[in-house]
């Protein structure tokens, strides 16, 4: 950061990461993380350089693999049938049934199982909106995210930047349902849609 020392950066990063680890990722936003970190640290994180730093920490957190309680990278995600032994039986079966229903819906739409090109992080690239913008699908803490963002090149790899948005499936569905209204608004403003 331009005017913050390494110690301040470290405090901000640790606080932001702790907030993210404690949070419900379904409802947490970067703005909420920044506000909570400001409150905990007694620092103004809304100034440009600190805002950008918080954004980088959040993006890095979202792009990193989940970790276990000890901070170690989790070996693999919990399997539905192994999740929390001792809980009610049959929960894994419910997940399998949902997956089968999803496959049936794919088949009804004619999409079937599709192989997608993968980015350097291993996430499927659904489409390229431009040479720098892509739509990818990511898994994070058991949630599927639709990520629309700009990428940059570093050391020969295409990496996601902080410029973009990651939507939960529910948010994506709300956006998808709003597309006809968005198209109408574009037309009303004189834009053309092919």
Plain-language structure description:
The model is unreliable at 73-110 (pLDDT under 50). The protein starts with 5 loop residues before the first helix and ends in a 6-residue tail after the last helix. It has helices spanning 6-22, 30-41, 48-63, 91-109, 169-188; strands at residues 125-128, 133-140, 143-154, 157-168. The chain is α+β, with helices and mostly antiparallel strands and 194 residues long. The chain has five helices and four strands; from the N terminus they run H-H-H-H-E-E-E-E-H. A hairpin with a 2-residue loop joins strand 3 and strand 4. Helices cover 43% and strands 19% of the residues.
Give the overall shape, derived from the CA principal axes.
Answer: globular
**Broad structural category:** alpha+beta
The helix count comes to 5
Low-confidence stretches: 73-110
For the biggest sheet, the summary is: 4 strands, antiparallel
- Helical content (DSSP H or I, runs of 4+): 40-55%
The total of beta strands comes to 4
The radius of gyration is 20 Å
Indicate the mean pLDDT: 75
Q: What string gives the helices and strands in order?
A: HHHHEEEEH
Order of strands across the biggest sheet? 1-2-3-4
The rounded distance between the terminal residues' Cα atoms is: 44 Å
Portion in strands:
15-25%
Quick rundown:
With about 190 residues, the chain is of the alpha+beta class. The protein has helices at about 5-20, 30-40, 50-65, 90-110, 170-190, and strands at about 125-130, 135-140, 145-155, 155-170. It is built from five helices and four strands.
Keywords:
194 residues, alpha+beta, four-stranded antiparallel β-sheet, globular
